[in-house]
Amino acid sequence: MGQKKSEGKEVSRRAFLKTCGAAGLGAMAISFGVPTLLKAQPKPIKIGSIQPATGPLAVIGQGQRRGNQMAVDFINAKGGIKSLGGAKLELVLGDSETKSEVGRSEADRLIKEGAVVLVGAFESGTGMAVATLAEQRGLPFLVDVATLDDITQKGYKYTFRIFPTSTAFAQRGTDFIKEIMAAKKLSPKRAVVTYVGDAFGKTQGGFFIKHFKAANTGIEIVEEISYPLGIPDLSGEVAKIKAAKPDLLFPICRPGDSMILTRELYKQRVELLGIISPGSPGWYEPSVVRDLDKLALYVMDNVPWINPASPVYQEANKLFEQKYKAYLDTNTGWAYTGVLVIADALERAASIDPDKIVAAFKATNFKDHPMVGDAVQFAPNGDNKNATTAMVQVLPEADPLKRVKVVLPQKFAQAKLVFPAPQLWDRG
Amino acid sequence: MKRLYLLLGLLLLVLLLLPLVLDKYALGIFVMIFFYAYLGQSWNVLTGFTGHISLGHALYVGIGAYVSTFLAQKFGLSPWLGMLAGGVLATLVALSLGFLGFRFGLRGVYFVILTISCAEIARLVVSHIDAVGSFSGIFLDFKPGLANFQFRGNLPYYYISLGFMVLGSLAVHLLARSRTGRLMVAIREDEQAALALGVNTFKYSMTTIGISAFMTSLAGTFYANYVYYLSPNSMFGMGLSIDLILRPIIGGLGTVLGPIIGSFVLTPLSEVSRAYFAKGGLEGMHLVLYGVLAILVVLFMRQGILVYIKRALKPLLKLED
Q: Do B227 and A108 touch (CB under 8 A)?
């Protein structure tokens, strides 16, 4: 902070003389021809990152910033954007405070500060506000994480998304469940869906139920249970689950309620073949896996996870662990990928002209990313055609940080899936 | 007083010409200044003048935003007309809320609770109506055009919001000087005494809440067509209700210029400090600063900043009192 202040606008005589002196020395050095490189260095290319760094999603938002920043550092370490004379990338930070109008205003500020591409926004409302602004200003915007379908259904020319939509989540989740039952030769009849009653839970739950019912799986959703975010006790809800006698539980949670739910299922001894989340947080976070310990085991979650076999992932994850003591997960992984995709487009556009960047985005075929799924390619509406999810499962392992494993699809699998799972109280 | 009007006229002229030298981002900051000044003004009518404290004014913003957007999306009605429809609905809702509150003599915290709970009920109800997107909210289509209340640049938004602020303040100014306005203040100062003197406090309280709700709801339509995304939590939530009352409180409650001054202090403060601290990697520091300033003003400038500005300008403007 102190340092920052000394860079303020007030110029005292002494500072002025000092600067002049330094500039003189610098000029001398240049005229002697030593650091000619300095002159040749092109201006950095600014990428505006809008994430919810404060407010209810602050923890996630700051992780997203780190993901963006790590990729910027990675590109710069490899020599920047070569087609633009090795120009370095620079991340300019915006904070949406988890509010749409703040996100919009921040995006405008970042554009003013010279951002040529925007990336963000984690939360769909802000994503929408920024997408509209990008359209108004004629500047490309890459959605790194945000699921609501609407963002790419407005016919916007400047918005692209690498993350799967809610529809994609629902389809993949349903397909995986079918696949698991077929592989294990099981034909469960009854299932219960629970979802947390915030915008995310309600949408994700609604899409899944609609899709699952239409998919003719032979499994009937006998009960849909919704509860408010931040609920301290789920005993009533779990009693309802138990009364419905389901074979399967499909929960859509946030990190807090997933733990309450699992403990209550244990207490009330609800018999299940297994818990399979159609796609939600609350199951793969290190804190959840560690705190629930044995109770978290065998839970499956359908998420756009990292690809464990990818060398890009391995390199990035190592750095991420060193720097932030956390592993690259579905959100930070896509934040990282977002900037890589932008760098790739800039490289091919060889220009910072917005329309040329947009044209480059459209021609994207980006394979070297750390996530599951094939190369990033954009459909005409701006969605990533190959955005997909993996089924991860929490499996027994001494180190809690190593328990989350990809089990499906086979192509990316790190371990064999365990299903049906032992009952919660039968785990020693 | 003449000099004061002259000064205000000059300031208005400056604001009218300001876009000549401002970029889009700076224009955006001014849009937010005017927007919150107008919202604060609308709330000020009720709480500043009659003393009935509402902590649920987001309710009317939400109604304005949702009604005009719904009508535009379903029936293609121009938001300019939808805005009036939203205003009428907001007024009706406010009158029924006011009826409950004033008819049964709810005062102080009880009235506050009534306003909060009505806004919360609306938030929950809207969260479950699929026609308006339930929890996930409404994403507006971007169709630039004057009739659609949507524009590419920030300039039209600048003038519209400036117009809102100026006309809103003018209306409040005229109201404050009218007989009704004086009776409103009488209610604030001592409702029992006013009643004893034969003032129909119920009637004037109802009038005020109706005006306040109507004005507030217009801002909702503006917000919808500026941000392009509405969600029950952001439009009906407690956060907005509190955000919109901070400006008049900091500027000066129950005065026409208070909300404007409050907004000119708070809005740029939050924008500039957010940008500044983001660069230093101090996420959230701007919120701390914002909070500290609010506390300081409440502690040391109880009547708001306006009083101090007036005092400083007294010799120049030859103000009485």
A: no
